[in-house]
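stage 2 :: seqdesign
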């Protein structure tokens, strides 16, 4: 796949994440074409990835590549893709990185084009530790699917899922790091204020997070039993408030994604 041309329509965060993961693994495609209406965002991406070809305000050039990634938000995807149906090569594959819009709707937007994949990437892909669920159109033959999976798995795990599950994964695995990162960075600062070196703090926090998850899923204990393993709970009185925030905000956003 690294010998194929790759186009990105949109040069924002998700494009930077995917390119970063492939570059870190030494698997950056040989030809990468990126379009965006925001020239400043394009130049920022070009500074990080000098290999890319920029096409400001010209989506037709990335659409003419072998693999065409639609790295766009749902509200703008239809207007951006609809004019490109004629620019797509018959053997191209369109990979949508957008929630909400299913393959059937994408096919309609693209004038009947059926060689479509949907992927829900998450940020740890930038260090090849991603969890990126994927859905393939029936129009993608098995051999090409295997090639694509090999290319995607450079970024991390890439399970094939049912299309109706994608928005749930968007909430839990794609957005999930945002629920935790600010807390972990706060612990990192506190650890150093308590006298640990930056390296010792990083090592300890990484081991703690990995071990905590292993205890959840590998100890054979109920959730109550796992949480009872540690008697001192400095944030115990705030747990109900935090859980209420999860329920309120995440349920509301999930309903919006599914509407």
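stage 2 :: out
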């Amino acid at each position: 796949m690294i010998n194929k041309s790759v186009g990105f329509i949109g040069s924002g965060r998700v494009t930077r994440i995917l390119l970063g993961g492939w570059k870190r693994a030494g698997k950056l495609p040989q030809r990468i074409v990126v379009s965006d209406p925001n020239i400043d965002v394009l130049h920022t991406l070009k500074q990080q990835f000098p290999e890319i070809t920029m096409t400001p305000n010209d989506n037709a050039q990335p659409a003419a590549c072998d693999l065409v990634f639609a790295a766009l938000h749902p509200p703008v995807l239809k207007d951006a893709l609809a004019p490109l149906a004629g620019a797509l090569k018959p053997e191209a594959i369109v990979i949508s990185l957008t929630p909400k819009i299913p393959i059937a709707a994408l096919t309609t937007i693209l004038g009947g084009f059926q060689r479509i994949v949907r992927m829900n990437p998450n940020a740890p892909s930038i260090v090849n530790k991603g969890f990126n669920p994927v859905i393939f159109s029936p129009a993608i033959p098995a051999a090409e699917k295997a090639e694509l999976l090999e290319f995607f798995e450079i970024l991390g795990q890439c399970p094939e899922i049912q299309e109706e599950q994608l928005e749930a994964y968007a909430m839990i695995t794609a957005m999930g790091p945002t629920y935790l990162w600010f807390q972990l960075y706060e612990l990192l600062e506190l650890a150093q204020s308590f006298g640990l070196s930056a390296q010792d703090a990083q090592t300890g926090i990484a081991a703690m997070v990995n071990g905590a998850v292993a205890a959840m899923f590998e100890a054979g204990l109920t959730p109550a039993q796992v949480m009872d393993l540690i008697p001192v709970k400095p944030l115990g009185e705030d747990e109900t408030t935090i859980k209420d925030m999860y329920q309120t905000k995440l349920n509301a956003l999930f309903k919006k994604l599914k509407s």
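stage 3 :: structure notes
- The radius of gyration is 21 Å.
- The first strand starts at residue 5 and ends at 9.
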